[in-house]
Every structure is written in C-alpha cells, then in structure tokens.
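Journal club side-thread
Mid-discussion, someone asked how the predicted structure for our own chain would compare to the paper's figures. Pasting it here so we can look after the session.
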Amino acid sequence: AAVCDCITEHRTLRCPDCLTCSCTGRALEIQSRFRNASAEELQRLSAERRQPPVLAEVTDDLTRPLIVVADDNFDIRGVAKRILEGLGYGVIAVENGEEAWHAVQRFRPEIVLLDGLMPRADGRTISRRIKDDPSLKTRTVIMTSLYTSRAQREEAFRVFGVDGYLSKPVSAEVLKTTIDRLLCPSEPDSRETPEAQRS
C-alpha cells in the first residue's frame, strides 16, 4: 500500500480499498471494518487479488482522455485506477507489459502509466515499442519506478523515450500534476527532462 501524503511526523500506509490512512484518526474504524468482515467477503477480496484483468471484457465505449495503467502490484493498480477515475479519466488497468501493449494497440489511450519492471515485457520495453510505432496515437508515456538514480532516470528518457518519470510511491497530487502538464502543455515542447525530475 502507498504511504499517505499527510504532513505528520510519522506518515502511515493508505488503505488500498478506501484510500484512507490512519493519520486521519480512522485507524480503529478501518481495523474494525476488516475484523468484522465475513468469511465470504474476505474470500471475495482474496479472489479479486488473484484475478487478472481481462481485456476481452473491456468495451470500446470508454471515457476520454483514456489512461492505461500497467503494474504487477494489485494494490498499486487499484489505487491508481481509483485516483485517475476520480479525476475524470477513463482507465484500463493491466498487470503486465504484454497486456499493456495489447491495450495500447486496441484502445489507443492518450497516456500510458507503466511500472518500469514487470513480468512479460517490462515498462521500458513497452515504452520503446510505443515510441517506435508511428501508427499509434499514444504519444505520452509515464514510467513509475522504485529506482531513482540519475543514470536510471536519464536512461528512461534517452533510451526508452518516456515523457515522465515518477518515483514510487507516487502521490495523488504528483500524478495529477504530471498528467495535467503532459496532456495540456503550456509550451510547444514540454517534454520532461531528467533535470526537471530531479528537482
């Protein structure tokens, strides 16, 4: 689960289900909710975690702008989907690079949010495929990663062609700001640079 953005001495984890953190004083309420859950509810949640997204079930009638979120972590996918849908974006969430590639080819999203390291083709590979395919309308790729060294950031921009690079855990505010800037650039060339990301 992602760490909260509260301005406190000790930040806490955010519940991947309701997005609430313990800093808000709802810790006991959250604990009670899960302690009092029935066996059927807990089994349902467990089954959802194991169930991969099925692109065949996604309809073509999707909200635009559309964002494909690819991350092999169930909770990160869920949190990102809730945040982005709350901001008014259409979202398709997938669990690996190959599913992300199929979703990009079929649905032509405006933005792809890729985890840098995933099974079955990682985010770096998929970013390069997207950038090398002139037939795709998807031109904006944001990569998320736990690795934040200068060399890794510069490689992501130079070699894999990403337009944004965000360090995990990604806060809702940083995600919103980055997407707004890339979708509606104030200047003709607003491509993010590694130098800007280090600030």
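Post-session note: The first helix runs from residue 27 to 35.
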